[in-house]
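The authors assume throughout that readers already know how a fold can be written as discrete tokens. For illustration, here is how one protein appears when written out as sequence plus structure tokens.
>
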Amino acid sequence: MVRAPDSARLIDVARALLAGGVDCVEITMTTPNALRVISDCRKAVRGALVGVGSVLSSDVAKEAIEAGAQFVVSPIFRPEIIATAHEASLPCIPGAFTPTEIAHADQAGADAVKVFPAGRFGPKFFKDILAPMPHLKLTPTGGVDLNTAADWIAAGAVTLGVGSALVSRAALAENNFSEIERLAGEYVRIVADARAAKSDD
């Protein structure tokens, strides 16, 4: 997930992420000119899935989809946001926190559920939730970094939402896209190794 105080460098960020092996880029609506950035990224960064994040209403979801977003992510659960994404045949990942909220989001058709803020309880929270509801597809946002990425996968996360631990303000300020590419590669390697270890269990 990419948050930035300005939008000028986000296409270069998306290219760096893709070069590092991360082919799914979420542009948050908190980014200035987010809709234009989504549209520009779709045109300029071939091979990457470009989605929208921080979506709080179905109207915003619709605008982002019209701009070219290929998936919709929200920090909250609103059934109408899921419906808007699905009407466009696009996946939606709403946010939830409690087991009841997560179950409601799943029942409303969420393609996966973004557990936010996941860092509040850590990977064990996923194990606890998945024990009675193993069918759920969970992705953590908050508390995901190079030290915890493998633990989240081992706990049952289907994917990871990584923000400033991957695209830091310092790297953005310095236009250090090679560092972003390097970190992307590290995350890809860690996730692949963790999935392989999990499949061997």
Observations:
- The chain has one domain: 10-200.
- The domain at 10-200 is CATH 3.20.20.70 (TIM Barrel).
- The two ends are 30 Å apart (CA to CA).
